[in-house]
Design brief:
Length: 109
């Protein structure tokens, strides 16, 4: 068994959970925050059998799209102004950042 952890954008989360439910996959949605943008994103925990990992990956790929996002400048507040960028910068935020972990034990009581 594997645990798939997928960090995706909030905008895609309903579409992804609907697609997972439709194919009978169980998932848990966690509200998370990106360390870089400090903006909300969604983390899915999906526990599934090893042979179904590829199918789950393709569902994630189909339902999560990559987008450009603007990063607002943060003023240096007395700190080092050398690295300060006074205008918003565009970053490409991925459709999904996915980790696949082995599950040692799975129980439901
Ligand atoms: P954030 O940390 O808010 O990052 C949003 C986007 O900003 C990233 O998109 C990347 O394009 C850019 N970015 C992140 N750190 C950067 C840096 N130090 N310098 C320049 N640009 C940077 P993605 O790579 O698609 O990541 C989307 C979200 O997935 C991340 O949101 C974070 O919540 C999660 N994530 C990505 N890589 C991760 C990792 N190795 N471990 C845990 N979470 C990760």
């Amino acid at each position: 068994m594997k645990l798939i952890m997928a960090v995706i954008q909030d905008k895609d989360s309903n579409r992804l959970s609907d697609a997972l439910v439709k194919k009978d996959y169980r998932a848990t949605k966690l509200a998370s925050t990106g360390g870089f943008l400090k903006a909300g994103n969604t983390t899915f925990l999906i526990g599934t059998e090893d042979e179904k990992v590829e199918d789950v990956m393709s569902i994630i790929k189909e339902n999560c799209q990559s987008r450009e996002q603007l990063v607002a400048p943060i003023s240096p507040m007395g700190g080092n102004a050398d690295s300060y960028v006074p205008y918003p910068v565009e970053v490409q935020v991925g459709g999904a950042t996915v980790f696949v972990l082995p599950v040692e034990q799975f129980e439901q009581f």
